[in-house]
Amino acid sequence: MSLLRQQGPAAAVPPSPSVEKVAGTYAAGRKTGRRTAGLSARTRHKAMGLLLVTPFGLLFAAFLVAPLAYAFWLSLRTSTLVGGDHFSWFANYKQTFTDPHFLSGVRRVVVFGLVQIPVMLGLALLGALIIDEVTSRLAKVFRMTLFMPYAVPAVIGALMWGFLYSPTFGPVNSLTDALGLGKVDLLGHSLMLTSLGNIVTWQWTGYNMIVLYAALQGLPREVYEAAKLDGAGQLQTALRIKVPMISSAIVLTLMFTIIGTLQFFTEPRVLEPTASSVITPDYTPNLYAYNLAFQYSEFNYSAAISFSLGAVVFIGSYLFLFATRKRSGLK
Amino acid sequence: MTTAAAPVPAVTTDRAPRVKSSARGRVTVNAVMVAMILYFLMPFWWLVVAATKNNDALFSTAALWFHSPGSFFDNLQQLFTYNGGEYLRWMGNTAIYAGISGVGATAVATFAGYAFAKYRFPGRNLLFSSLLGAIMVPATALAIPTYLLLSKVALTNTMWAVILPSLLNPFGVYLVRVYVQESLPDELLEAARVDGAGEMRVLFNVALPTLKPALVTVLLFSMVGTWNNFFLPLVMLNNDKLFPLTVGLQSWYQGALIQSGANALFTLVIAGSLVAILPLIVAFLLLQRYWRGGLTVGSLK
Amino acid sequence: MSSNRRPKLRSVRRTAVAATSATLAGVLLAACGGGSDSGSGAASKGPVHIKVWAWYPQFKQVVAEFNKTHKDVQVDWVQAGVGQDEYTKLKTALKAGQGAPDVVMLEFQELPTIQLSKGLLDMGKYGANADKDKYVDWAWKQVSDGDHVYAIPVDGGPMAMMYRADLFKKYKLKVPTTWAEFKEEAAKLHKADPKAYMTDFGSDETAAGWRQGLMWQAGSRPYTYAASKLPDIGVKLNDAGAKKVYDYWGDLVKNKLVDTQSYATTDFYNGLSSGKYATYIAAGWGPGYLSSVAKKTAGKWRVAPLPQWTAGGNAQGDWGGSSFAVTTQTKHPKEATQVARELFGTSEAAWKIGIDQAYLFPLSNPILNGSYFRDKKYDFFGGQQINKVFVPAANGIGGFDWSPFQDFAYNTDTSEVGKALQGQTAWSSVNDNVQDQVTSYAAKQGFKVSK
């Protein structure tokens, strides 16, 4: 979906008990030996911190700050195919927010997100609750199977589904054909968003499930063991106790999913060649920015679109965090 | 955990219906699991089946069942020898990218995460808070400027163009920092210092061993990130000899679709996809305990 | 993406690059070791190395042939990407001012775009004008602007109709010579077998060049453009010829007489081999494509001239075609020009590979009109000498200008065709909508547009 999803788990990590034990005994024996840090120690401390953070700082500056600054500078200039380029302040941004291509793309990903995100996170939550509760062999298979698509490059995933959606030899159409329902054009206008949503759901449900599962595993068992003794069923325990207790993890996955959805790019790009009259160059805002730069050589305007999208994402996620502040602070 | 063999006795009559309902519940849960397994497995199943077919069978037989005679080994043989064995080369490239970036990114993230958690230094808060904003930037926005900047130092179209940007893993830093805060008490480090250990020794001998699950997690996820990365190498590399698998397979597929005539290539793309995802799935399966450990340490039943 | 071409043939194995045995360390060292480019041989007396981007696999042998016959210049071939992927990389490298090859394979319709970004070297300064008479007239006009030569033509795509002789016999169809007959036969066929179609209307971006070729035949000349006359450009995408084509095909689509599968799909390929499509309206490179995609229908196909709008007419169109251009980033303009001119040029050895294995349609006069090409019999077409259809078609193609924003125009056209297919807009308004969008885009890009 986007790079950020590939970057790693978004789950907070609970501490290891064994570590705490070790730390406890180690520290206990030494408590008396504590001393106040001298000036030289503090300087050394500071130097050490700087030293350790330097590689990251350099990379951060080189591959994030510098490109961003450069892109921002680009976005303040206007260039045309004929006539060269000039500094134009925020003209590109003004154009962005009245550009029907950009706005229709934003609308499309919002509509897409409103349906796909609840379905995917709903499935992920359901899966997480199941594997938290059931320890059978089936549950283990279930856990790994759902997670497997995460290991598949998005390019290959979309390519596989491209074959599966085929009207001639795809299994979906064989099925509807056999049932006498006729062909279903999964890559046509009306179903394309659904088909894309299916790919994303397939790819990311397992990952989100594992994150939520990790949060569930971090809950103190006693709370709901007690509830069970009180006669609450598994379903009730799950809905009334477990779900509220991991609400911060849910909010977190929700936020990352929203960010990813707004940046929707890889799947439509991979399906684009096979359905180019449906997936137009402005299909999603990110695809639009990509095509502007790489197909039409409109680097400046493309940079402005990207920044505008970044701003939408930024504001969107902060609003979201603000709105769910209470909920996420529950824990 | 809630097995049937729960302590039974001392029950009243109202217990009976609940047992029934929970049995029904178990059936429902199992049915849900089986249905979801089938759905999530289906594309993999298709891939395995399709990889055993030749071109004719691929486009004329039922998609989800085998066709005899199969040509799995022919497909593999062709996959590994096509165009001078470029697939193997791409695989090697991918391993290099993922290996170096994975180890490098983990090291960088560990040092930085540890520093953020345990040291105070100028710029600490600014850097850390901008780290979270970093993930909001769409990758496409960075692609062009990064390309232009790298080309100024003549690094585009080299392996470094893929490796260097992949070393930056803000999430890894975040994860390590949280992990260090939660599982590495100051007292432990302080005690080692009192014992006369230098800062480096504290880091390598005291902190790192404790952080192992987090490191494995960061390593695995950054390797997967690089292994699966498509956009960055697509933009950075012009030379097919430097392509990773994702870009290489895409170029085969693109060629098959557009230059057409590419009968052979469809089977190659399919067999190539299967071979490309196997290492990752195996890695995830084998290392399951470690990476799940990274996520869930401390709360195992 | 912009055109459906480049047949790929039998698996040609690369022996030179024994990548299999390259150890990981070796690859790593080689790749990480140094900067990027070749050709900096400077003072040393070894041969000059010219880096060439091209994407069809048979090119390997052509390069080997060139390197065998040249001492001072050697070609290093790189497959940077297929079609649009290659153009994307070229544009990015040009923007960066670094990283472009010396010589690059470009389809004709991309030339003005790259030229406008100052990416193409004027080979006229290095003697390329001497080649003028070696190439078909209309092709030379596509690559030059007066004495400025921006590319050397390689192959073209004169259009014709390939058809399944066996199906035509089975359903008693007549080989259509006009588009009106084509429609009648299409109705007859579809009635006889509701699962079969006369052909497939290419609605995707891959087929944008196909649609443009058909309009070309119908007399449409949407652009009046020459780099030397900037910023003037004439844009008329809704002229009578263009409208005639969409009215006609829109009618066939609405009556379900043709299929509407995207060309860049496996389903389309399958349709060609399964008998779902009775004809394939394609270009001079099409036989290679068809014979490898629909291998099992070998011997059943024949080639006939493109149906005409008026009975007895001789209007032709072109779909696709490529050239070799030299980029402005080359450090060896002289040698690069030589490579562009001589890789194929009039070399019979190179063209033998091009014709027999890559199924290229030569635009080089001596080859095109030579008996080897003209009289060649094709088993796939039941021994027919198909070039006796294609060569006259090639000679009937008139002049045609492309725009320097062809990607935008093709994408816009594809989007609007998609809307019409979906019933969101009328077929009759497609051309007008495209015209509106493209002219306003051009105006915004600083062109002085005359409509």
Would you write up a description of this structure?
Chain C: Pfam families: SBP_bac_1. Chain C: This is Lactose-binding protein. Chain C: Keywords: Signal. Chain C: Residues 1-30 form the signal peptide. The complex is a heterotrimer of chains A (331), B (301) and C (451). With 331 residues, chain A is mainly α. Chain A is built from 15 helices and two strands. Chain A has a two-stranded antiparallel ribbon with strand order 1-2. In chain A, a hairpin with a 3-residue loop joins β1 and β2 (84-87). Chain A is globular and about 75 Å long. Mean pLDDT of chain A is 82; it is low at 1-37. Chain B has 14 helices and no strands. With 301 residues, chain B is mainly alpha-helical. Chain B has helices spanning 15-51, 55-60, 72-118, 124-134, 139-152, 159-166, 170-183, 186-194, 199-210, 212-228, 231-236, 245-258, 263-286, 288-296. Mean pLDDT of chain B is 83; it is low at 1-20 and 297-301. Chain B folds into two domains: 19-51; 72-296, MetI-like (MetI-like fold, Orthogonal Bundle), CATH 1.10.3720. Chain C folds into two domains: 37-156 and 321-374, D-Maltodextrin-Binding Protein, domain 2 (3-Layer(aba) Sandwich), CATH 3.40.190; 158-318 and 389-450, 3-Layer(aba) Sandwich (D-Maltodextrin-Binding Protein, domain 2). Helix content of chain C is 39%, strand content 13%. Chain C contains 18 helices and 13 strands. In chain C, the strands form four sheets. A five-stranded mixed β-sheet of chain C has the order 2-1-3-12-6. The longest helix of chain C has 16 residues, at 406-421. Chains in contact: A-B, A-C, B-C. The interface between A and B is large, with 121 and 128 residues.
| Count of beta strands of chain B | 0
Enumerate how many helices of chain B there are, as a single number: 14
The counted number of beta strands of chain A is 2
Main sheet record of chain B = none
pLDDT averaged residue by residue of chain A = 82
Helix content of chain A: 55-70%
| Class from secondary-structure proportions of chain B | mainly alpha
Q: Which CATH architecture of the largest domain in chain B? A: Orthogonal Bundle
**How would you sum up the global shape of chain A?**
globular
Please report the first level of CATH classification, the CATH class of chain A: Mainly Alpha
Structural class of chain A: mainly alpha
Main sheet record of chain A = 2 strands, antiparallel
Radius of gyration of chain B: 25 Å
As a percent range, the share of helical residues of chain B equals: over 70%
